Amino acid sequence: MTFHIVTIFPNIFDSYLKEGLLKRAREKGLIEIKIHNLRDFTDDKRKTVDDKPFGGGPGMVLKVEPIYKAVQLIKSKIQNPKSKQKVILLSAKGRKFDQKMAYQLSEVSNLILICGRYEGVDERVAKYIADKEISIGDYILSGGELAAMVIIEAITRLIPGTLGNKESIEERRFEKTCKLSNFQTYKLGSYPVYTRPEIFEPKLSLKWKVPKILLSGNHKKIEEWRKNRRVKKGNKSFNT
Fold first, then answer.
1. Quick check: 134 and 97 in contact, CB under 8 A?
2. Least C-beta-crowded within 10 Å: which of 50, 110, 156, 165?
3. Contact between residue 21 and residue 155 where contact means Cβ atoms under 8 Å apart
4. pLDDT at position 237
């Protein structure tokens, strides 16, 4: 199984991925981990990956363009494009990651993990690029890098040949517990955010637009729009 991590802080992973279970799994050839620096997919000299949110608000938002380019390049280099692959956006408003989801994702051959940062990621990434948004818990982190490591380890434990006998017994006990749970937990998500460009055209015949209300300058209507899009996301079936 190959994990692809898209991040603006590639060095964060250096020590953790070179120790313990993940080190053993990599040395055995059971998993491969490829880290992609998002700044390598920008067009300007400053390697800009973020911009101010349309409609106003605090902080900066990760842009859709470099993320799209990164994912497209990763997909183009997958040797068997027909193999199971998923693109995951790590986001505070995503579905909560659990053991059941880990089992389901362990069936994927290539897992692309997009690490969010700042105040969020342009909503077009979640809408058009990612197959799913995932959160590792009901709390806020500075970015998705820690979440990526949690997900990678949880999935790697499920790959045959990774664990020793003692660990395997613990795994089977937890598997039984998972099967007894319905995993029906819910949480309140934040509103979608967008930043420049106003219209992104990944292809000549395709246009991904920012909602017009965010460009109106009418802060009252913008606030109402955001309030209406704070949705609850259920932890139900996850199809791979």
1. yes
2. 165
3. no
4. 47
Report which of 85, 78, 69, 190 is spatially closest to residue 138, judged by C-alpha positions.
Answer: 190
- State the Cα angle at 190 between 118 and 133, rounded to 5°: 75
Question: Nearest Cα to 57, choosing from 192, 228, 211?
Answer: 192
What confidence tens digit (pLDDT) does each residue in 139-181 have?
889 999 999 999 999 999 999 999 865 455 355 545 555 544 4
Res 189: pLDDT? 53
pTM to 2 decimal places: 0.83
Name the region of 217 (left: φ>0; alpha: ψ -120 to 50; beta: rest): left
Could you state, in order of their start, the residue ranges of all structural domains in the chain? 2-234
Domain 2-234 belongs in CATH node 3.40.50.300: no
Stretches in the chain below the pLDDT threshold 70: 164-189, 231-240
Do residues 61 and 126 touch, judged by C-beta distance below 8 A?
no
| pLDDT score of 165 | 57
pLDDT by residue (tens digit) across 125-136? Answer: 999 999 999 999
